[in-house]
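G., before I forget:
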Amino acid sequence: MSLIALLISGLFVNNFLLSRFLGLCPFFGVSKKTESALGMGIAATFVMVIASAVTYIIQQYILVPFDVVYLQTVMFILVIAGLVQFVELYLRKFQPDLYNMLGIYLPLITTNCAILGLALLNVTKGLNFIESVVHAVGAGGGFTLALMLMSGIRERLELAQVPKAFSGLPIAFITAAIMALAFMGFSGMI
Amino acid sequence: MNSILLAGIIGGVSSFAIGIVLAYFAKKFAVHIDPKIKEIASLLPQVNCGACGFANCETYATAVASGKAEAGRCVPGGSDVAKKISAIIGAESVAIEKKLARVICAGGKDCKDSFVYGGIKTCKAAVLVDGGQKSCQYGCLGFGDCTRICPFDAIHMGDKGLPVVDDKKCTGCGKCVEECPLLVLELVPAPKKTWVMCKSKDSPAETRTNCSSGCIACRMCEKVCPVDAVHVNDNFAKIDYSKCIDCGECARKCPVKVIHHDIPKMVASISDSCIGCTICAKNCPVGAITGELKKKHMVDAAKCVGCGICVTKCPKKAIVLKKAK
């Protein structure tokens, strides 16, 4: 699969939020304001790219040679958690502004299933190092895109006269469902 | 057995390695955070109201700890919090004058609509359409933007279509004052229970046609105020709180009942320890105290407005205020 196709696939066709339904927690939790949605998206993309690279190395140079591929999930979670901790330490020291902007979202990403899902998908798809990273960029971009779209819609919904029973989270769920339907339209592209 | 051992070793070794690396970098990238910040932040109410001029409680705490801001800026916290924070940073404590938000409009349902507004139900949206649907351009529109912004749940819409401030919950942070597009809300010193509920600059005749509760600038309050604290400017009465003694005489005499006052009327009464020095009689702004020199003085309950000036002037502390019958 060519790199561009991988990128497009992550962005639209196999959008992590709207087609694979991974990482739905921040999709509803952080999509009330565009600013925080963008922050969460960037943080997730950042961690996704690093996690894909590191988990590829773990998979190829530890799990496969020692024949312990069944430890995949445990090891990936371990590595991702450690990685997020490290990124947090680094940002707090050298990029305090970015650290403050990301706030609680950064440690929350540790337990985000989109990251683990991506790492496991890279392995199942049999992607090489470069492909894994590109796939991560595409997935992260798709994640950010979906979050931004959702937050934009939700900001407008604030001003709309929604029936009382639907106001708040219910209308957000309905919106997400319609968005997922719309993203199904991309499925024939690749 | 072998595979269990191998899994244990690989898991253990990599966890240990990650732990070591993280511990090393945690030390290396350690950021020194002033412990005072946490202490100060725990005292603050954590509602992020912004009354201190900072974005949130955390940044204010940081600014105080580093000496960039003074301790007495947290309005919701009040003097109590200011005192504790001053103790932490070792500065002298400052007293904060507590204020409460007051609604400067008595219109609501008494104020006529000039058109039917069918747009988004917020004051900010309504005010964009020719200044709002009310015929009075200074009055409350009643969509309750202030009730939604209040971080303390202290403002609610009342029966009259006007917001009502809950004195017990209001901390005087001023969020509602900023939020109101028509500046209907104002901060008034907390002990004062008297305020004018109108700020219409229209001519009295215009105000009268628009609203049955508006100030008609008759200047009755000016005449009856014992301490010269209320004045009519721009066609509405305004109270100078540095002078006001909260006697409520203006509210009782106001023909349109646009001055709010909810303390029962007080009347001065002179006890037997009066020595007849006549100081009270000289100071009484309404001439309600009479009596001869060196004899016990009397208060004319019908004239007395309960302002309490005589109480403060009496050298023998012989005068007390009692509830009027």
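Chain A touches chain B at residues 62, 66, 68, 70-71, 74-75, 78-79, 82, 85-86, 89-90, 92-94, 96, 159, 161 (CB under 8 Å). Chain A has nine helices and no strands.

More on Monday.
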